[in-house]
Design goal:
The protein is of the alpha+beta class. Helix content is 44%, strand content 19%.
C-alpha cells in the first residue's frame, strides 16, 4: 500500500511504475481524492474554530447584556453544530474512497525487473544441473518414456483422485501408504533444513485468520475470490431472517400510500432491528492460502528494535486456495489443488538489507532442491507476471520429465514496505530517530506437493517403482524404493 504523501512528492515516478505494470497513470486521480479529503478536513476544522470563536463572543454579549446578539450567535452555533456531522461524514467518505483505491493498486517493480506483459517476458537467471533429455526420457541412466506423477501414483495404488472427488470434489487427492509417507518426509526434510542449516525459526501458526491479516499481506480485498472463507451457521440464520423480514416489509407496504404506513414502518423497523440484534454475529475467518499470511503478520502493529532484525520464520502448513481463475488448467493430478502443503519462508528486515535477504532466501529454497538432486532453473519474473505485493520475484522451476517441461516449485519475493504499511509494522533505527517501516519478504521453501511430483517423476523406474532420494531415506525409516503393495 502506498503513502499518499510519497505519491504527491513523486507523482511521475509512481505513474512510471504503474506503466511498467501495464496500468494507466493514477497519480492525478489519487491526488484529487486526497484534495477532497483535505478540503473536508479543512472545512470541519474551520467550522469547529468558528464555533469556538462564537462561544467567546456569546460570553461577551451576555456580559454586555446584549441578549439579541447573544441569541443570534447561539443560532449560528446551533447551525454549525448541526453541520459538523455532515462535514465529518464527508471527510470519512473521502478518506475511505482514497484508502480503498490505494489498497487496489499493486506494488511498484524495482528498476532492474525486466519488462514484459506475461510469463513470456521472464528471464532465466540461472540453471542448476544437467537437463534430462526432453525426448526419450533418460532418467538416472535408464532409457524409457517417463510417466506423469498421477499415472505412477494410480498404478502403484497409492494416489486416489476418484475417492477424493467423492469426499470433497475436484482438485483434491487421497495419498496412501508410502507415497503419503514420502510427502510427509519431504515436508519434514525441508523444515529441518531451513531451521537447522539456514537459521529460520519454526512456527506453527493458526490456519484461520481474520480480515485484517489477509489485508496486511494483500490477499484482500483484490483477491477475495481466490480465498476460502468460513461462515458460521448462526450468521447464515441471521442473513435468512434479515431477508425474510425485509421481504415481508416490502410485501406489506408495496403500493400503499406512504402516509398510511408511516407509523407502521417505523415500528416495524424497530421490532425487526431488535430481533436481529438478539442473534450473535460470528466473526468471519479465512483459511490461509499460504503461511505467508500468519507469519508476516506476526509483526503487525508493532515497533521492533533494529537489533531484532532480521527475523526469519518458517512453517509447514496446509494451504487452501479456491483457484477461481484456473478453470480448465492442470485438471489432472496434483499440480493445482484446493488443498496442499507448503514450507513457507518469511523474512522481516531493514530497507538496507532487503535486497541481500532476497538473494539469501532464494539460495535457501534452492538448497533443498540441490539436496534432492533435482534439475531446475531460476527465473526473474517480468513486470507483467509478478505478484500484486511484489517489488521483485524469483521463481524456481523444477524439471518434470513426465510433462517434459519446467513447472514452478518456489516463488521468492521482496515486497519492500508495501505489506508493512498495510500492517503498520515498523522498527526503531539503532541510531535513533522516528520509527521506519520494515521490509518484508516471502518465499516457498518449497511447495511440498510439487516437490513430491518432481521426486516421483525424476526418480521413477522402468517398472513403475520410485527410488527414494538419499536425502529422504532417513525420513522414510530406511525405505529406498516405493513399489506396488
Amino acid at each position: 500500500m502506498y503513502d499518499i504523501k510519497w505519491i504527491r512528492e513523486n507523482a511521475a515516478a509512481f505513474d512510471t511504475g504503474l506503466k511498467r505494470r501495464g496500468l494507466e497513470p493514477l497519480s492525478a486521480s489519487l491526488l484529487a481524492l486526497d484534495d477532497a479529503r483535505r478540503s473536508a478536513i479543512a472545512k470541519a476544522q474551520a467550522s469547529q474554530e468558528r464555533r469556538n470563536a462564537l462561544s467567546k463572543e456569546i460570553g461577551k454579549a451576555m456580559g454586555a447584556k446584549d441578549v439579541a446578539l447573544a441569541e443570534q450567535l447561539k443560532a449560528e452555533v446551533a447551525s454549525l453544530k448541526e453541520l459538523q456531522p455532515q462535514l465529518e461524514a464527508q471527510e470519512k467518505a473521502a478518506k475511505a474512497e482514497l484508502d480503498d483505491t490505494l489498497a487496489a493498486i499493486p506494488n511498484t517493480p524495482k528498476d532492474e525487473v525486466p519488462e514484459g506483459a506475461d510469463e513470456l517476458g521472464n528471464v532465466v537467471k540461472s540453471v542448476h544441473g544437467e537437463a534430462p533429455e526432453k525426448v526419450g526420457g533418460r532418467l538416472f541412466g535408464q532409457n524409457f518414456a517417463p510417466k506423469e506423477h498421477f499415472e505412477l501414483g494410480e498404478a502403484l495404488g497409492q494416489m486416489d483422485f476418484e475417492t477424493a472427488a467423492k469426499l470433497s470434489g475436484s482438485r483434491f487427492v487421497v495419498l496412501e501408504r508410502q507415497i503419503a509417507r514420502l510427502s510427509r518426509a519431504i515436508g519434514q526434510f525441508m523444515l529441518d533444513t531451513h531451521t537447522e542449516e539456514h537459521g529460520y525459526t519454526e512456527v506453527m501458526p493458526p490456519l484461520m485468520v481474520r480480515d485484517d491479516a489477509m489485508f496486511g499481506t494483500a490477499q484482500l480485498p483484490k483477491f477475495e475470490d481466490d480465498q476460502f472463507a468460513t461462515v458460521h451457521e448462526k450468521d447464515l440464520e441471521e442473513r435468512r431472517l434479515e431477508a425474510d423480514v425485509w421481504v415481508a416489509y416490502d410485501m406489506l407496504t408495496n403500493g400503499a400510500p406512504d402516509e398510511y404506513f408511516e407509523e407502521f414502518r417505523e415500528e416495524f423497523k424497530r421490532q425487526a432491528n431488535a430481533r436481529l440484534a438478539t442473534i450473535p454475529r460470528y466473526e468471519r475467518h479465512w483459511l490461509i492460502p499460504t503461511a505467508e499470511v500468519p507469519l508476516t503478520n506476526l509483526v503487525r502493529e508493532s515497533i521492533l528494535a533494529e537489533e531484532e532484525l532480521p527475523r526469519r520464520y518458517t512453517a509447514l502448513t496446509p494451504c487452501f486456495r479456491a483457484e477461481a481463475g484456473s478453470a480448465g488448467r492442470d485438471t489432472r493430478g496434483m499440480l493445482r489443488q484446493h488443498q496442499f502443503e507448503k514450507v513457507e519462508l518469511v523474512s522481516i528486515t531493514t530497507p538496507e538489507k532487503s535486497a541481500e535477504e532476497h538473494e539469501r532466501m532464494l539460495s535457501c529454497a534452492e538448497a533443498v532442491l540441490k539436496k534432492l538432486d533435482l534439475h531446475y532453473r531460476v527465473m526473474t519474473l517480468c513486470t507483467g507476471d509478478m505478484g500484486f505485493a511484489s517489488q521483485k520475484t524469483y521463481d524456481i522451476e523444477v524439471w518434470l520429465p513426465g510433462q517434459k517441461t519446467y513447472r514452478e516449485i518456489s516463488s521468492c519475493s521482496v515486497c519492500g514496505d508495501f505489506q508493512a504499511r498495510r500492517m503498520d509494522a515498523r522498527y526503531r533505527p539503532k541510531e535513533g530517530g522516528s520509527p521506519r517501516f520494515v521490509h518484508t519478504l516471502n518465499g516457498s521453501g518449497t511447495a511440498v506437493g510439487r516437490a513430491l511430483i518432481a521426486v516421483m517423476e525424476n526418480y521413477q523406474n522402468a517398472d513403475g517403482s520410485i527410488t527414494v532420494p538419499d536425502a529422504l531415506v532417513p525420513y522414510m525409516r530406511g525405505v529406498t524404493r516405493i513399489e506396488k503393495a
